[in-house]
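Re: [ENG-882] Designed sequences occasionally contain unexpected residues at chain ends

Forwarding the minimal case from QA. Structure tokens:
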């Protein structure tokens, strides 16, 4: 009863890619003068079919990131998720909060007070607290959601008042740019992360989620402690 036509060569390449990326993440941490285990590697699994995700999980991957609520809920039963942390990293519409609250370990894409209020409402009703990251729109791109850095402190102060939601750090996706510019963006987010520190009660600055396939080394150099890697592990995405 195979649902998928397994591509053995692709399975093999996921294995090689995962091992290679993991060791280069550790290397980048050491190069930045940090502990080799100070950066977590998230496998970004959007559009990837379960067997390929499971191959990475079998190799010890312990953190996955999904973009879409529907896609995650549809395929999670086929994933070997024992001991694996699951984060939602894609744009979250307020009308989807009900379906995802309590189903993932962290929502990294809290991009507005409005969304935070909905998460708060739903989680309070369920008697749970959602661990979240605030998403920073560092390039002020209209195509992306997220909070502008100038408004970050004020926005976090508002979210801090809400029950049922706890901000534990920041997530960002810089604009498409060269590595030097990406590093400047990452440095800006890191500076905000440090300056907020523990200054807002009920807000923690522990997790700094920055860096994807093309720029994770630069992000690690600027202090990231979660890198979100899709393409470099699973290959180019096919959208269907
Ligand atoms: C798709 C995605 C990634 C991974 O991107 P790659 O370039 O494939 O590594 C990371 N973060 C978010 C929010 C994404 O949507």
């Amino acid at each position: 009863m195979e649902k998928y036509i397994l591509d053995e060569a692709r399975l093999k390449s996921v294995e090689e890619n995962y091992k290679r990326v993991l060791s280069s993440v550790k290397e980048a941490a050491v190069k930045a003068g940090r502990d080799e285990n100070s950066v977590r590697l998230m496998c970004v699994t959007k559009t990837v079919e379960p067997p390929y995700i499971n191959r990475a999980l079998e190799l010890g991957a312990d953190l996955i990131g999904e973009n879409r609520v529907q896609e995650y809920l549809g395929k999670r039963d086929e994933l070997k998720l024992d001991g694996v942390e699951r984060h939602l990293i894609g744009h979250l519409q307020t009308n989807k909060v009900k379906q995802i609250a309590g189903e993932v370990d962290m929502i990294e894409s809290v991009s507005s007070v409005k969304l935070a209020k909905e998460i708060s409402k739903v989680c309070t009703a369920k008697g749970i607290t959602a661990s979240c990251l605030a998403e920073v729109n560092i390039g002020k791109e209209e195509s992306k959601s997220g909070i502008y850095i100038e408004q970050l402190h004020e926005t976090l102060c508002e979210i801090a008042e809400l029950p049922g939601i706890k901000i534990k750090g920041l997530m960002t996706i810089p604009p498409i740019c060269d590595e030097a510019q990406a590093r400047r963006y990452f440095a800006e987010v890191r500076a905000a992360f440090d300056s907020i520190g523990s200054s807002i009660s009920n807000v923690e600055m522990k997790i700094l989620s920055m860096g994807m396939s093309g720029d994770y080394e630069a992000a690690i150099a600027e202090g990231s402690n979660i890198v979100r890697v899709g393409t470099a592990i699973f290959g180019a995405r096919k959208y269907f």
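QA comment: On inspection the terminal residues look reasonable. The chain has a mean pLDDT of 96. Proposing we downgrade this to a documentation issue.
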